[in-house]
Amino acid sequence: MRIFTGSAPAPRLNTDFPIRRKLLLSTMMLAMAALVGRAVYLQILDKDFLQDKGDMQHVGVVSVSAYRGQIKDRNGEPLAISTPVQSIWVNPRQLKDSEQDKLTPMARILGFPEKELRALLKKEKDANKRFVYLRRQINPDIAEKVKDLEITGVYFEREFKRYYPAGAVSGHLLGFTNIDDIGQEGIEHGYEHILRGQPGKKRVIKDGKGQIIKDVENIEEAVPGRDLILTIDERLQYLAYRELQNAVIQNKAHSASLVVLDAKNGDVLASVSQPAFNPNNRKELSSNRYRNRAIVDSFEPGSTVKPFVIAAALDGGYIHPNTMIETHGVYHLGRNVVKDVHNYGTMDLTHVLQKSSNIAVTQIAMTMPPEYFWGIYNKLGFGTSAGVGFPGEASGSLLDYQGWHEFDQAILSFGYGVSTSILQLARAYTALADDGIIHSVTLLKRDEDPDAQRVFKPETARKVREMLEHVISKEGTAYQARVEGYRVAGKTGTVKKATAGGYADDKYLSVFVGMAPASNPRFIIAIVVDEPTSGQYYGGLVAAPAFSRVMAGALRVYGVEPDGMENMHLLLSKR
User: Fold this and answer.
1) What does pTM read for this prediction?
2) Distance CA 398, CA 404 (A)
3) Is the CB of residue 426 less than 8 Å from the CB of residue 524?
4) Phi-psi category of 550—alpha, beta or left, where left has phi over 0 and alpha has psi -120 to 50?
5) How many CB atoms lie within 10 A of CB 427?
6) Whether the Cβ atoms of residue 304 and residue 365 lie closer than 8 Å to each other
7) Which of helix, strand or coil describes residue 446?
8) Rounded to an integer, what distance in angstroms lies between the CA atom of residue 486 and that of residue 368?
9) Kind of enzyme, top EC level (predicted)?
């Protein structure tokens, strides 16, 4: 035995134990967190893993489709709506050999040739694909029949399909969306940022076949798109569509466009083009059919600009209401020659418009300084986009006066050397219809026009309007534009089409722009018919009759009080 003497050291406490315990707890917590994280990853991020392992339930995050905003006419009538549909897709890797016999009824329900379906699925499975659409945007009832088959690996997704109740009547204006509900043409494309909604997200529980069996929680609410209320009146849109179609057929024309404006505020009440297309059925249609000619095409307006030349000269004091102008069938301007169809002799301003004299209007134009003349055209919107927010909207062209030669000013006076869309031309006529005030044009409903501005004095606009009533007389160029019971003012244009190296001798644009009632205009209608080939090509014979029918219908629909009862009584007495 060994004996220790002296003072022995005191026993030591194990102070490392609390630290070790903390380390152990931390390690356990990290391990648990890793296990939880792995579970979340498998359940949410790697859903295919669990789906391949059997029929256990699992949690997933799915997208929630958002409604696209509706497009409505000014009276609330739907022009474009979205309806819920189903799309069916498959994960080829998950298809079971034991369920192969279910592919036969599925193919029959979907209208899919069975041999093609099986070949597609085998091909995609061999390529290790996990996602293949079978059918998109089908009737929910059809999707339910497929769902009842309970095929592993076949999934269902709610989407929305765009539908256009008016079909071809408003096709060029509205455009359409693609299969992913994204605007591709027309208003659908131009106002995509307003119409398109924001998809949401939700957490769900799915069974082993991928079918949602329970909603767990909303992660992010879907935000629907906003509705668009247009200025379009569906009643006038249909009327304009029908009459323009008839004009194209009767005159065997290449194409045509027509616009109806509210003369008091610039609202576009109708806008149609031919040939038409139905946005509900776009199979085998070329992009040329989609083009909204009324807004994106430009052309030389011809004699329809002559009223502006006379208004500009009157307003600037370069001519007077009683001015007389000599014409003799031919007018020389330097080395260039201006001609009329007939020798009209000496004419007053009313007859200048009534007979549409190129010689007289040229002489009037040459009295004005180029800068002033150009300034009026510029204020009328020529060479500037109408600004309605439509994709591809035409600006037209107007050469700056500093680059003009003497003859440039002459041809501008009878509508050559300047180009415009039919919408821009109709807008310019608001300056005559609303007593000298030109209005901005819009496709979206608004309370008032914030950009209205004066171009002519009120008395000038009214005087020119009175002159334009004589164009609709028997002695004028547009007798077929008359509307029983109403005074009508307007101007024809018959324009040779520009071709490579000059103008064609046998291809014309037939144009007419008019307003009614002339005493206090309510509507402006502008129409252009491209390349009529049935024998007639003058604006007064091709475009004016369609104007008359559309104007008569518009006045009737809106209950506008007649201002030409004397004319009506005269017409009735002749029957």
Assistant:
1) 0.82
2) 11
3) yes
4) alpha
5) 27
6) no
7) coil
8) 35
9) hydrolase
Q: Rounded to whole angstroms, what are the CA distances from 412 to 34, 306, 406?
A: 80, 9, 11
What is the residue whose two structure tokens read 């030389």? Answer: 300
Hey, what are 502's tokens? 């000059």
Q: Reduce the DSSP state of residue 212 to 3 states and report it.
A: strand
Task: Tell me how far apart the 2 most distant CA atoms of the chain are, in Å.
Answer: 155
Residue whose structure tokens are 């102008």? 325
Whether 207 shows a pLDDT value over 80: the answer reads no
Residue that the structure tokens 């006419």 belong to: 73
Alpha-carbon span 187 to 309, nearest angstrom = 34
In this structure, are strands 330-333 and 336-339 parallel, antiparallel, or unpaired? Answer: antiparallel
Architecture of domain 233-565: 3-Layer(aba) Sandwich (3.40)
Q: Are 522 and 555 in contact (CB under 8 A)?
A: yes
Active site residue 303: yes
Q: State which amino acid sits at residue 363.
A: Q
- Point out the least confidently predicted range of 25-29, 86-90, 328-332: 25-29
CB 176, CB 166: distance < 8 Å: no
How many whole angstroms from its chain centre is CA 549? 25
Of 148-157, 257-266, 308-317, 341-350, minimum mean pLDDT range:
148-157
H/E stretch holding 83 reads strand 78-90
Which residue, among 446, 5, 93, has the nearest Cα to 262 in the 3D structure?
446
What gap in Å lies between CA 377 and CA 368, rounded to an integer? 13
DSSP string, 461-488: HHHHHHHHHGGGSTTSS-GGG-BTTB--
Token pair 């415009």 is found at: 420
pLDDT at 344 over 60: yes
Beta-carbon count within 10 A of 250 CB: 15
Give the span between the Cα atoms of 572 and 514, in whole angstroms. Answer: 23
Give percent of the chain with pLDDT exceeding 90. Answer: 67
Residue 209: is its pLDDT beyond 90? no
Mean pLDDT of the chain: 87
Sign of CA dihedral 101, 103, 105, 108: negative
Q: The tokens of 270 are what?
A: 């109708």
Q: What is the pLDDT of residue 502?
A: 85
Q: Calculate helix-pair angle for 306-315, 358-365, nearest 10 degrees.
A: 40
Q: For residue 460, is pLDDT > 60?
A: yes
What is the reported pLDDT for 158? 82
The residue from 65, 303, 421, 548 that is catalytic is 303
Tell me how far the alpha carbon of residue 526 is from its chain's centroid: 18
**What is the structure's pLDDT at 500?**
81
